[in-house]
Amino acid sequence: MRAVDRISFRIDSGEVVGYIGPNGAGKSTTVKMLTGILTPSAGHIRVAGLNPVRQRVALARRIGVVFGQRTGLWWDLPLTDSFELLRHLHRIPSARYRENLELFTELLDLGAFLHIPVRQLSLGQRMRGDLTAALLHDPRIVYLDEPTIGLDVVSKAAVRSFLAEINRERGTTVLLTTHDLDDIERLCGRVMVIAGGRLVYDGSVDGLRGRVNAERTLVVDLAAPAPRLDLPAEPPGARVIRVDGPRQWVAFPATASAAPLITAITARHEVVDISLREPDIDEVVRRLYLGGLRSSAAAASSVGDPSGTDDPSETGGRSATSAK
Amino acid sequence: MVETLADTVRVYLLLVRMWSRAAWAYRTSFVLLTVATAVVTGLDIVAILLIFAHTPRLADFTLPEVMFLYGTSSTAFYLADSILGTVDRLGGHVKAGTFDVMLLRPARALVQVAADQFTPRRLGKVAQAVTVLVVSLSLLDVPWTPSRALLVPLMVAAGAVIYGAIWVSGAAFQFVATDASEALNAFTFGGNFLTQYPLVIYGREWLWALTWIVPLAFVNWQPALYVLGRPDPLGLPLAFRFVSPAVALALAVVAALAWRAGVRHYRSTGS
Ligand SMILES: Nc1ncnc2c1ncn2[C@@H]1O[C@H](COP(=O)(O)OP(=O)(O)OP(=O)(O)O)[C@@H](O)[C@H]1O
Ligand SMILES: [Mg+2]
After folding, report:
1. Looking at the structure, do residues A177 and A270 belong to the same domain, yes or no?
2. What is the mean pLDDT of chain B?
3. Which of A172, B3, B27, B269 is such that its CA lies 20 to 30 A from the CA of A16?
4. CA end-to-end span of chain B, whole Å?
5. What is the per-residue pLDDT for B130?
6. What's A156's domain CATH number?
7. Is residue A304 part of a domain?
8. How many domains does chain A have?
9. How far apart are alpha carbons B133 and B230 in whole angstroms?
10. Using the beta-carbon criterion (under 8 Å), do B18 and A76 form an inter-chain contact?
11. What are the pLDDT digits (tens) for A135-185?
């Protein structure tokens, strides 16, 4: 079986990239190949200039990894013991270690449970511990496979702002796998979508909306209830989709500009208020997954934007892993 | 080379310290298990003493001589066991996906598996075996020439490497067949049991198989024949008494290659 096939991308230093796709798409498999856990059956991968399988130990010093489903912490010992071990394994200078631990303790609010055995921590507490463990040695790149899975709203927000801060302050490159599109919208400048083992989209979050013929919506509040709005010919495809008393909803292609539409409506009607709604990302992604599964072959060859020079993480060619 | 070895030892000791502390979190079971292990290992020696209560010689070997065989085999075995520990249960890590976590740390996977679940109890078994060996040495009636004296620590070290190599090869096999742990134990624990006694008591066919197929005869039997000044029942040349280190080295190379191939075949688990 091909878990991933013909995936090719390049991530520049300091990028925050979201990696999304339906269950079983091949996200975790990709991350495992990027970390040297799985040996690709074909293709070529370089991360921070290293071959992940052959130079796994050297690579492990330069990257940090969190698998949300699995912990790397010592189950029967307090967090501090796991952190101390990592300090020795990575040979983190003690001043740097103290500085990092202090900062992370503050950002992730670890103080209350640093000295409790990991097996007694809640999921959210443990996840924050795992994040700290992955970042203590100042890795250049972090891979996060569902780091917000099962977390409450507050913990999610803490994790997100933590990642944003680390990226901003240290220029850490982040590859984030998630099913929570809020994570993507709040953190990622770029998103890659994988479906059925093929990359079906690679670009900005906004571009994703245009990709699937998504529509934006104008919500028009008129002075008084009126019949359906009289819309201009530009942009084509604009139409009233709902009327509720003085309020009407006008849908139009996300790629078109709203300005001529607004000008025309305000010229022809007495308008109290107008607001613009972006297409719902969940809806966009749902459409993309469905479309991607059907036509992944056509889309895969057009992805990849090998423009940067400093490339900490890159896969190329046909990176496939075959599994039973 | 020297630096990587020193680093490997350093990492190993770091992990051993972590696991020992974790074991200490369950103090009661730690103490109970220590007592239980001591009793079980002690029963081995009781079995030998019982045999000699009925007969002065076993296949022409005296009690001190059998104790010497027991001491060398068990010291080698439990040394390998102390260092490699639960490596024979690698299949469990593969099935549970916990091997992933080891591959994410900046340390060799084999070192981490070897240190996995370390408990200071392991050293207790070595101590017991060494005690028997020391007692046997004091009772043996052989002229202690330098070559005899030198061969004793050498055979223990080579024996430990041979057991270790079998363990690691068996573990590597578990990347492919995750349930092979029991079959592996037949070679290691079974091998230790066999080599505690003079191999000649099992008959010529077994002796031949243990020399040429699973070379456990080189753990202690062949060098012991020289130390005890006895002829080889198979009539092998004198040089065979001294080749244990070479056999150990060859098996270690095979084990290292098998392990590397195994890790490359690692398929992880879903999620
Ligand atoms: N260890 C394995 N052995 C065999 N097949 C596997 C293994 N791990 C994953 N697969 C298969 O490979 C495909 C991709 O799995 P992967 O775990 O990469 O998906 P994913 O995108 O991370 O999905 P999810 O969102 O559910 O975590 C799936 O079809 C899965 O069944
Ligand atoms: Mg996954």
Report:
1. no
2. 90
3. B269
4. 37
5. 94
6. 3.40.50.300
7. yes
8. 2
9. 19
10. no
11. 999 999 999 999 988 888 888 999 999 999 999 999 999 999 998 888 898
- Give the Å distance between the CA of A145 and the centre of ligand 2: 7
Contacts of B98 (CB under 8 A, 6+ apart): A70
A270 and A229 inside one domain: yes
Q: What confidence tier does B35 reach under pLDDT thresholds 50, 70, 90?
A: confident
**Interval between CA A126 and ligand 2 midpoint (Å):** 19
Distance CA B47, CA B54 (A): 12
Range of the domain at A267: 215-278
When scoring B94, B103, B260 by the number of chain A Cβ atoms within 10 A, the one with the most, hence best to mutate, is B103
Residues with CB under 6 A from ligand 1: A 3, 21, 23-29, 323-324; B 267-271
For the CA of B270, the nearest atom of ligand 1:
8
Indicate yes or no: CB of A38 within 8 angstroms of CB of B271: no
> Which amino acid is it at A255?
T
Per-position DSSP letters for B2-21, written without gaps between them: HHHHHHHHHHHHHHHHHHHH
pTM, to two decimals: 0.83
Which ligand approaches the C-alpha of residue A29 most closely?
A: 1
Give the model's confidence band at A309: pLDDT under 50 very low, under 70 low, under 90 confident, else very high.
Answer: very low
The confidence band for A294, taking pLDDT boundaries of 50, 70 and 90, is low
Task: For residue A58, tell me if it sits in a domain.
Answer: yes
Within a domain: A73: no
The whole-angstrom distance between A63's CA and the closest CA on chain B is 9
* Residue B202, min C-alpha distance to chain A (Å): 44
Q: Do residues A202 and A221 make contact, with C-beta atoms less than 8 angstroms apart?
A: no
Tell me the shortest Cα–Cα distance from B130 to chain A, in angstroms. Answer: 32
Name the residues around ion ligand 2, CB cutoff 5 A: A 28
